[in-house]
Structure formats: C-alpha cells, structure tokens
Design brief:
Largest sheet: none
Helix content: over 70%
Strand content: under 5%
Number of helices: 3
Shape: elongated
Length: about 70
C-alpha cells in the first residue's frame, strides 16, 4: 500500500509541472494567429482533460477511503 501511495504521489507531483500541449501543427498555426489563439488552444486542451482526470481522481479517492477504513 505504501508503494502504491508513493507511485501515486510521484505521478501527481510530476503532473503539476506539465503544460497543455497540442500537436505541432495546431500549436504552430495558433501561435502564428497570435497569443490569444494560442492561449485559447491551451485552455481548450485543459478543459477537455478536466473531466477524465476528475473521474479518475474521484474513483481513486472513493477506492482509497473504502480500503483505508477496513
């Protein structure tokens, strides 16, 4: 259990430094259109990633609480 917690902690800490990235063509096109388009692309990627990450986090917390209380 401690090993799993360590792996999970390392994953979470490394994910905090990551930034939203798109494909190189999309990023290059957005950067040529200006800062507003590039920021919009990055915000859109983060918006689309929020739901799966929230679901995985919720399932993880529920699983941990159920196993931790036994």
């Amino acid at each position: 259990m401690k090993k799993l917690l360590l792996i999970f902690s390392v994953f979470i800490l490394s994910a905090q430094t990551s930034k939203a990235q798109g494909c190189s063509v999309c990023s290059k096109t957005a950067s040529q259109l200006g800062d507003k388009s590039a920021k919009g692309l990055n915000d859109g990627i983060i918006y689309l990633a929020m739901l799966p990450l929230a679901l995985i986090g919720t399932i993880g917390v529920v699983w941990w609480k159920r196993n931790h209380l036994k």
